[in-house]
Amino acid sequence: MALGIKLARVAIIITIFALWEALSRSGIVNPRLLPAASDTLAMLGQLLQRASVRNDLAVTASEVLTAFALAVPFGALVGFLIAENRYFAEVVKPLLFFAFSIPKSIFLPMFILVFGVGFAQKVGFGFFSTIFIVIMSTTTAVEQVKVEYLTVARSYGATSAQTALRVYLPSMLPVLLEALRISMIFNLTGVILAEMYASRDGIGHQIASWGENFQMKQLLAGVVMIATIAIAFNEGIRWVETRCSHWRT
Amino acid sequence: MTARALRRLIVMGLIVLWEVLPRSGAIPELFLPSLSSTLLSGWNEAAEYRQALAVTLSEVAISFAFACGGGILFGAVVGSLPRPRILIMPMISSLYAVPLVILYPVFTVWFGIGPESKIAFAAIYGFLPTMLSTAAGIQTIDPQLLLAARSMGATLSQRLVRVIIPAAIPTVLSGLRVGGALVIVGVVVSEMLISSAGIGYLISRYRTILDTPHVFAGVLLVLAMAVAFNAAIKWIERRCAIWRTGTQGGQRAAREITASPLQPAT
Known about the structure:
The structure holds two protein chains of two kinds. By secondary structure, chain A is mostly helical. Chain A contains ten helices and no strands. The two termini of chain A are 29 Å apart. Chain B has eleven helices and no strands. The chains are: A mainly alpha, B mainly alpha.
């Protein structure tokens, strides 16, 4: 059964690509607007050979990772502090919900005004678009920890290090992994948007300029490339999540 | 002090700081213009902003219709049939990981820089969450309700109108809230990237000439739009509360969706 479902999914993906190929080759859709799938994939191979594209990928990766490395510990700390104090949580939570629900992208011009166009602006915006989701999910994660477990651990005389490692971490881990996955999605979107909006390098900038120059083959190859990277990362974390699910309390 | 009072105090403090910090020069006016000068510059160019708002709102309305119509229809079909659900849902939620912004250049090539490309982009942007939450809402309907209806001889259309739709409404509404917020983001972002009209375009144009008060007036306008939309959906939710059949599953799903990752990604 599981194998059948997997095969069916692969079949769906192949059908989509075949349809794309057929539409373009038969001329139903103008091939200049939609180059054939095979041509696009060949172009993707060529692009990956190019030093400039590799450089763009490296730039984007470094921006994404820096923003992630800054936003996750900071957000986790703030979220933890909020969740630990009930009064404070009651005060701050609606504000956080509000900050979380407003569109972040309209503040992008502000980052350009403050940081100029460059590395700091992308990292700043990536940080800004990630931090709220990290705070929110950490608060949820802390709330997952059952008070009974804490009471038991304390009454048996567990040190605070032991409570952190043996009670907090196992209860929070599934939610935290999920949070990491989601915040990476937010982070990647933020950095790529910032690159598309105003930038000199990075893969988002590359995609925007291919679009402006009507280089459809390169553009679609770039879209396929980023989509593949994003999906691969997402599925990777999901795999770890299922491996860790026996820890779930 | 009660939590609510302290919260009000914090909000008021932030507003006062917004006025005082730029005025005193602690933050350069280029980075953050004071609240009064932002409002004043918005007021001075009111006609321009009104025109841009009309363009943006019409784009939002059309793409909202597409995103929600498609999302609810597709979500209802996928959610009510078990086989496609098992097959397709995981694929769609992995698709959710893709930063959809990269599709916008493709749409500008296909549809030009007019409203069409914005509508197409925003509709796709809002489609996924609406669809996912509708599917979840249909899926979590208490099977006992359906069983009871069926054993009392309800026809398919009766089951649909009297059981399935009322039970799915809370989840669908929270899906609409997220979908609508994403549609607003999608339209504004695409206007900021490449366009010739709309609020996003105004924000971008004033940014390039470093006219910060006008940039922030545009930002405030978009914020007001998002807040107004949220309030409208909340109002509808309250009006529909009578319809709620109070199934545990449906309410839990609604809560999960509002608190969960299906929120405006940037």
